[in-house]
Amino acid sequence: MFEIIKSGGWMMLPIILCSIAAMAIIGERFWSLQRKRIIPAELVPYIWQLHRDNKLDDATIRRIRMSSPLGRVLAAGLLNRKHGRDMMKTSIEEVGRQVAFELERYLNALGSLASITPLLGLLGTVDGIIRVFSDIAVGGMGDPGILSAGISEALICTASGLTVAIPSLFFHRYFERLVDDHVVRMEEESLRLIDIMQGNREDV
């Protein structure tokens, strides 16, 4: 593996750095965007139970806010539950936009890596081809060994750039879809809570 990387030339270094960054982002997003961490299934029933028992005090709402992104959204509505449905909905929407933005953290960077690495591979390819023609100009076409190094560098850089870019692009699209799903689910849970708190729904 080291010999392959070495034969790819100097452009392999930024490609390797991009691959490490992409792997780190993918691992972090897999951990952070787990459904149970974003949208705990028991949260709305728990809030409804507290509401029926008249235990929704400020300290409890603070704990709900710190529990998860969904808890942060719902807590905004709970703090304004005495001001009517419209105020609850407005407060939830304001915090929901902030939470949605935070869920997209690092996705732009991952998309940029997916776009940059093929270009780095292309740059390495061009550099290898330039070296091939320079060697031809100096030594002629008689020695195949003169050409092999430059051609190898060109092919390795192209393959390496694509190897990093393809999974990066795949996971970028996957995480974007996952964030969209989480946002829609949080909206559903928020409307459900508003209906409960305003007396339009009796149970969960």
TrEMBL record:
Pfam families found in the cross-reference section: MotA_ExbB
Localization, UniProt: Cell membrane; Membrane
MotA/TolQ/ExbB proton channel domain span: 68-187
Alphabetical UniProt keywords: Cell membrane, Membrane, Protein transport, Transmembrane, Transmembrane helix, Transport
Membrane topology reported for the UniProt record: Multi-pass membrane protein
UniProt xrefs under InterPro entries: ExbB/TolQ_transport, MotA_ExbB_proton_chnl
Residues that span the membrane, as ranges: 12-31, 106-126, 146-171
Similarity remark: Belongs to the exbB/tolQ family.
Protein name: MotA/TolQ/ExbB proton channel family protein
Species assigned in the record: Methylomonas rivi
Taxon lineage: Bacteria, Pseudomonadati, Pseudomonadota, Gammaproteobacteria, Methylococcales
